[in-house]
Amino acid sequence: MRYLPLTDADRGEMLAKIGASSIDDLFVDVPEEARLDGPIHGLPMHASEMAVERHMRALSKKNLAAADAPFFLGAGAYKHHVPATVDHIIQRGEFLTAYTPYQPEIAQGTLQMLFEFQSQVARLYGCAVANASMYDGSTACWEAIAMAGRIARGKRKKVVLSGALHPHYAEVIRTMAKFTEDEIADALPTMKGSPDLDGLIGRIDEDTSCVVVQYPDILGRLCDLEKISEAAHAKGALVIAVNLEPVALGAIKSPGEMGADIVVGEGQAIGVGLQFGGPYLGLFAVREQKHVRMMPGRLCGETTDAEGKRGFVLTLSTREQHIRREKATSNICTNSGLCALAFSVHMTLLGEEGLRRLAAENHRLACLAADRLAEVPGVSVLNDSFFNEFTIRLGQDAREVVRTLADKGILAGVSLGRLYPHAEDLTDGLLVTLTETTSEDDIDALCAALKEVLA
Q: What are the EC numbers (predicted)?
């Protein structure tokens, strides 16, 4: 396709049509400090191809790659081993280039894969129905809140967020709520061994449409979802459980079993590498079939054709892209299909038994690390319970410790001061994550480095 540039007259006509005086009017919602006021500083206006390649190689050498150092980062992005089979299958042309399967007769492979993916997610989450994936975990979380509002028919506008919900997810929620007039009742996490369930339950009232709880939470703690579900349902509110580490569900009870009405999460940990932050994979499921038509996204189903042969179709397509416009349940047009395929292939390779063994190994390593870190002078372990990540307190700003250890070639974890820059009582907290890719030598290296830095 040829590039056909617009003329000044073309631009003027388009701007006049939408009521904007200039292109700058289209960016008024972007904060002033986030806008460029000219060319990017420090970059030449032009350079040869070889010069650019040399420059980019020099920049890449400044990175400390996850595979080249003891790695303890998590907080929603996890380094798990992805079998080579996953990449081999998703690179096949019929999957790599496939888009929305509008015509089922020529998209049976994609539809069958999405159908199996839905079945895996529903089983993992303990729910009746899962959709064919969403953009990522944070936007899936907001879509669940919007769905709860539809179920409440707009009569309830209060959304109660657990203080231990990932702050990036909470920020997405607050951003979207500006356009829906939902009242967001949020809080900061309490630096205690167990989540403050009584404080959370105390914020639920008759105006609450839903309660959003992360499981395990941002500090790695496990909460009693059944207690929250009972309290929320008593007030007529729905419970939205958010899971950022799906491997955990190979070891702990599923959110659906514990009464969560909508379960959402990030699927990156299974089949999808860290990839500099994306693309990732939003998971979305509902516990009861009666809520299916309120779900966002798409639903693939199994049927029989005119000859009685098994086939797959798009059973439910509620996006605005499917000619529903303002009646759509969602305006997210991307379902991260390739990442969903990677998730499904990896999950198939693991099977239920493999997932349980993987979860057990993650937990074993985390317990080993917690015990050893607790012996380091100046370190205390916060959690009473955890799966593969937990919070330690260092008695000083964890951000400085993380930077110092990075200089020593150890990626020690995610500092709570980074996640909560304005909460002074959280600054000494460090979220440490262990997966099957962590060795016992890595744990020893972290403990030794902390002993030196905290001495």
A: 1.4.4.2
123 touches 309 (CB < 8 A): no
DSSP 263-324: EEEE-TTTT---GGG-S--EEEEESSGGGGGG--SEEEEEEE-TTS-EEEEEEEE-BGGGTT
Q: Tens digits of per-residue pLDDT, 158-178?
A: 999 999 999 999 999 999 999
H-helix or E-strand containing 212? strand 208-214
DSSP code at position 223: -
What's the farthest any 2 CA atoms get from each other in the chain?
75
Phi and psi at 441, nearest 5°, equal -65, -35
Assess whether pLDDT exceeds 70 at residue 124. yes
* Number of other residues whose CB lies within 10 A of the CB of residue 119: 16
pLDDT of residue 315: 87
Count of CB atoms within 10 A of residue 181's CB? 9
- Of 416, 417, 408, 419, which Cα lies nearest the Cα of 449? 408
pLDDT on residue 63: 87
Q: Which pLDDT score, from 0 to 100, does residue 314 have?
A: 87
Which position has the token pair 């009569």?
155
> Which CATH architecture group holds 84-346?
3-Layer(aba) Sandwich (3.40)
- Residue 183, classed as helix, strand or coil, is strand
Which residue did the predictor score with more confidence, 8 or 328? 8
Domain ranges, ordered by start, for the chain: 84-346, 352-454
Q: Tokens 């190689």 sit at which residue?
A: 57
Residue 71, phi then psi, degrees to nearest 5: -125, 120
How many whole angstroms separate alpha carbon 445 and alpha carbon 455?
15
* Percent composition of the chain: helix, strand, coil (DSSP 3-state, to 5): 45, 15, 40
**Does 331 or 132 have the greater pLDDT score?**
132
CATH class of 352-454: alpha beta
Distance CA 270, CA 243 (A): 13
Instruction: Return mean pLDDT, the chain.
Output: 92
36-39 own/partner pairs: CB under 8 Å, 24+ apart? none
